[in-house]
Structure formats: structure tokens, C-alpha cells
Design brief:
Strand order of the largest sheet: 1-3-4-5-2
Largest sheet: 5 strands, antiparallel
Number of domains: 1
Helix content: 10-25%
Shape: elongated
Number of strands: 5
CATH superfamily: Hotdog Thioesterase
CATH topology: Thiol Ester Dehydrase, Chain A
Length: about 150
């Protein structure tokens, strides 16, 4: 991880690319058992007859992996603290997918009432190894200003 970033360091159009996270069947099933126990997340055979026509990761698992990768690639001072998010999953995440997040700064707005911070809007695309988007997220994130 590089030095931490403050509000003053960010400019519209800045792009950050994460490392990778390889997802396998075991991870999908383990997550599903604990957090999203639906047939299309738990068993490939049962999943064949569903909307997904095969085992698919929970969208919430894709979101959790996205967060892991985002934190590792965007070292904001004070952490990545979300204030609002819009998320969609244009296609399922599958066993064998290798995920990577590309985050782009859409806007930077210093707070009018709190001089120590501001808000940054990020567009984060989580893509698989073929470059196909498996999650699109627009997030408003709290960002602290450097003192002085």
C-alpha cells in the first residue's frame, strides 16, 4: 500500500486498480451457508435448474470481495467510510472467476460545514478475468482533509 490519500490528493478522473481475488466453489458455498443460503449459491446440481443455470456467488459476496480489493487499492486516510451506495450485478460471479476492481473518482466535494473533510464519489467496476463487469457500484465516501 502507498502513502495514505487525503481529499486534497484526489482529482476527478483519478483511477485506482486493485489486486486480484480468485474465487472458487468452496468459498462460494462457505459464504452462502453463512450469509445467503439459497440453492443457486449452495449446490451446483440444484443451481442448474435455477435462473442462474449453475453455481453463482451471492451478490453480497461479490460486494464483500469488492470492499476487500477497494480497501487495498485506495488507501484513504481514516479508511474507506461509505455514506451512500448504488450497486448492481449485471452478471453472476462464478467459481473460477478472478476479480479485480477499477475505481474512478467521479467528484470531490469539500464539506461546507466541516473543514476537516469532504465527500468523494467513486465509480467502482468489479470485473472478472475476461474483463466482464460482475458488479457496478457508485459510492459516496467520506474523505478527510490533510491538516494545514
Amino acid at each position: 500500500m502507498t502513502d495514505v490519500l487525503y481529499l486534497q490528493d484526489l482529482t476527478v478522473g483519478d483511477t485506482f486498480t486493485s489486486g486480484e481475488h480468485a474465487l472458487d466453489t468452496e468459498q462460494i458455498i462457505r459464504f452462502a451457508h453463512e450469509f445467503d443460503p439459497q440453492p443457486f449459491h449452495l449446490d451446483d446440481q440444484q443451481a442448474q435448474g435455477t435462473f442462474f443455470a449453475g453455481l453463482a456467488a451471492s451478490g453480497w459476496q461479490t460486494s464483500a470481495i469488492t470492499m476487500e480489493l477497494l480497501v487495498g487499492s485506495l488507501p484513504l486516510a481514516g479508511g474507506v467510510i461509505g455514506a451512500h451506495v448504488d450497486v448492481s450485478w449485471p452478471q453472476p460471479t462464478r467459481p473460477g472467476d478472478v476479480l479485480r476492481v477499477t475505481s474512478t473518482v467521479v467528484s470531490v466535494a469539500p464539506s461546507r460545514s466541516r473543514p476537516d473533510r469532504g465527500m468523494v464519489v467513486l465509480e467502482c467496476i468489479t470485473a472478472n478475468q475476461r474483463g466482464e463487469a460482475v458488479q457496478r457500484m457508485t459510492s459516496k465516501v467520506l474523505c478527510f482533509r490533510r491538516e494545514g
